[in-house]
Amino acid sequence: MQEHVSFSKARSAKYPEMVQIIMVPDGAGGHNPMTASWVMFTSIEPPMLAISIGHERYSHDLVRSAGEFVVAYPSVEMEQEITEFGSASGRDEDKLAKLGTPIQPGTATGCVLLADAVANFECKVRGELPSGDHTIFVGEIIASHVNTKPVDRMYVLERKRFGGLRPV
Q1: Which among 3, 33, 36, 64 has most CB atoms closer than 10 A?
Q2: Domain residue ranges in the chain
Q3: 168 falls in which pLDDT band (50, 70, 90)?
Q4: Could you write out the DSSP letters of every residue in the chain?
Q5: Exposed, middle or buried: residue 154 (CB in 10 Å: 0-12, 13-18, 19+)?
Q6: pLDDT digits (tens, 9 = 90+) for 80-104
Q7: From 3.30.420.40, 2.30.110.10, 2.40.70.10, 1.10.238.10, which CATH number describes the 17-152 domain?
Q8: pLDDT digit string, tens, across residues 104-158
Q9: In the chain, what percentage of residues exceed pLDDT 90?
């Protein structure tokens, strides 16, 4: 039996869910990371995924102007990054420098990869769709990377609480 509740209460029932970090060049030689969970694969051939970013977020206009982004699946070692990248704005600080987050150059875009992540996907924007107070950016995956060592993925267990799960 189902009970009619607020959207906010029902939305909390979706946890646990994967958490991702979106990386985008800032146009000034830097890179802005943003924690996100509204990411999904949308096509196998060609490989594509979609990300949803709020209009007021700093990363929103950066993705639109850069035309590219990276989706990184963080490891359990990256809990501090997940928290910081989701609570501070790149308008105000260089979040990568603040935490000393290890990065490496992308191979197919001007984006950087998160070196400690489980996986990174370099994407070129192929379309966008307004969705209420967010924009859905659709990206074609043009390069994929995985960590050279076994690492556990980080999940959102409940709002603002994270934990790792080992992939099967």
Answers
A1: 33
A2: 17-152
A3: very low
A4: ------HHHHHGGG-SEE-EEEEEE-SSS-EEEEEE--EEEEETTTTEEEEEEETTSHHHHHHHHH-EEEEEE-BGGGHHHHHHHHHS-TTT--HHHHHT--EEE-SSSS-EEETTSSEEEEEEEEEEEEETTEEEEEEEEEEEEE-SS--PEEEEEETTEEEEE---
A5: buried
A6: 999 899 888 888 889 999 999 999 9
A7: 2.30.110.10
A8: 999 999 999 999 999 999 999 999 999 999 999 999 999 999 999 888 887 766 6
A9: 72
Residue found under tokens 């704005």: 89
For residue 8, the one-letter residue type is: S
